[in-house]
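Hello, quick one for you while I still have it in my head. Could you read through the record and tell me how the tokens relate to the sequence? No rush at all, and the record is pasted right below.
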Amino acid sequence: MTDAEDARERDVDQLLFEPNASINGPIDEKAVTSFLDQIAAVRAGDQDLVLELNTVGGDADAARRIALEIRLFSERAGRAAHCVGKSYVYSAGVTILGVRYTEPVPDGGCVPPVATVGRGDPHELRLAGAHPSDVAVPATASPSSKQ
């Protein structure tokens, strides 16, 4: 196995088995408080945010707060944020899953790295939104320039 393949395997393992934040249950004020504690610990370190999310949903305002904190983490810490929904993500959880999890790409846009595991190949990791139409418009571009 090459060094690049080893690194990719470690990245997949972290996404699947080593989240540094998790929400497992309803989205409510307790989930917000717990998540704020978890993201503070991640921010204090040097890792990317890897959130494991399993929820039947809950309070939409609580979900928006969590989504905001994820976006601010990515923007202010300069590190990637990933969200893995392993079994079920409903209702308010989709608000969290729908955050533009972004990593810079050479053209100045962003690609959301929301991971899904390939069904046929357990080593296949697909990134949702990799289609060019899902690339965010760079801040300096006008909305009409998106292709």
In short: Strands lie at 21-24, 49-55, 81-89, 103-104, 110-111, 114-117, 125-128.
